[in-house]
Every structure is written in structure tokens, then in C-alpha cells.
Design brief:
Elements: E1 3-6, E2 17-20, H1 23-42, H2 45-75, E3 107-113, E4 116-122, E5 143-145, E6 149-151
């Protein structure tokens, strides 16, 4: 333990007081430095995580829309709706989902009755930051195709 000397200023006849300092006084600056060193880089991490979670939520939206389209098809003699709006009155969806990265409804749907099929995509380049490292453009991804299912990367 270290000792710290304090003086009784202005009081004649008093000897200097000796006061011991605890371990906390010595350890506190080291603890603060360690926390800043450890948590400093972690403060930059949510930027990347937020982008990835938006892409994951968009993929989940695609799967939910595809499930609603399949349920609609089962109830309507194998036919898919002409537009996604037809899924709301039949309680297949409560509302058309919005892309979390774009903040609006971006799902472009193409239904066909000959042969009965559908495909849709998250229109635009909303997930460009999440699709780093691919040689092709991330425009209109993720996609969903009735034959291939979710196509989640370029």
C-alpha cells in the first residue's frame, strides 16, 4: 500500500497526517484504460451488425411472402395472385412487409398463370453494404423464385 501525506493547512501545531490509500485508487486508472481499450473497437461493430441484421430480416420477409403465396395457391386451385395486395384480404399477410434497409415496401412481384409460377425480389440496391466481396452487383437481392426458393446473394 502506498502512503499519501496531507498537511493540516492553517492549523498551527498539527503534525502532517499520514493517510493510507486503498488498492482502488491505484487500480482505477488501469481499469479505465483497459475498458476503453476493450470497448473502443466494439463501438464500431454495430454498424456492420446492423447491416447484416437488415439483410437477415429482408430474407425473412421474402420467406414469409413466399409462404403466404403458397397458402393462397393452395386455397385457389393452384393459382397465384396477380398482385401481393391480394394476400391481405384473405388473411395470408396482415400487411405487405417493408424492407428494413430501405424503410419502405420494395418487394416487386411477378406472378404468372401460364405456367403457374411466381418470383419476386427486394428491388433496388438496398443491401449493397452487406453484399461486399461478390463479383456481381447486389441489385435486386435477395430474390425468391418458386422453383429455386430463396436466392440470397448475387
Amino acid at each position: 500500500m502506498s502512503e499519501e501525506t496531507t498537511f493540516a493547512i492553517g492549523v498551527p501545531g498539527l503534525e502532517p497526517e499520514k493517510r493510507e490509500t486503498g488498492w482502488w485508487t491505484t487500480a482505477f486508472p488501469h481499469l479505465c484504460a483497459a475498458l476503453v481499450g476493450f470497448l473502443g473497437p466494439a463501438m464500431l461493430l454495430p454498424i456492420r451488425c446492423h447491416t447484416g441484421s437488415q439483410l437477415t430480416a429482408c430474407k425473412s420477409n421474402c420467406k414469409n411472402i413466399a409462404t403466404a403465396l403458397e397458402m393462397y395457391s393452395s386455397d385457389n386451385a393452384g393459382r397465384y395472385p396477380a398482385t401481393l395486395d391480394k394476400l391481405i384480404p384473405g388473411n395470408y399477410l396482415k400487411l405487405i412487409p417493408t424492407c428494413p434497409a430501405a424503410g419502405r415496401a420494395t418487394y416487386v412481384y411477378h406472378g404468372s398463370s401460364e405456367p403457374d409460377t411466381f418470383r419476386f425480389a427486394c428491388a433496388g440496391n438496398n443491401h449493397a453494404r452487406a453484399y461486399t466481396g461478390f463479383s456481381t452487383s447486389s441489385y435486386n437481392f435477395p430474390r425468391y423464385d418458386v422453383e429455386r426458393g430463396l436466392i440470397d446473394h448475387p
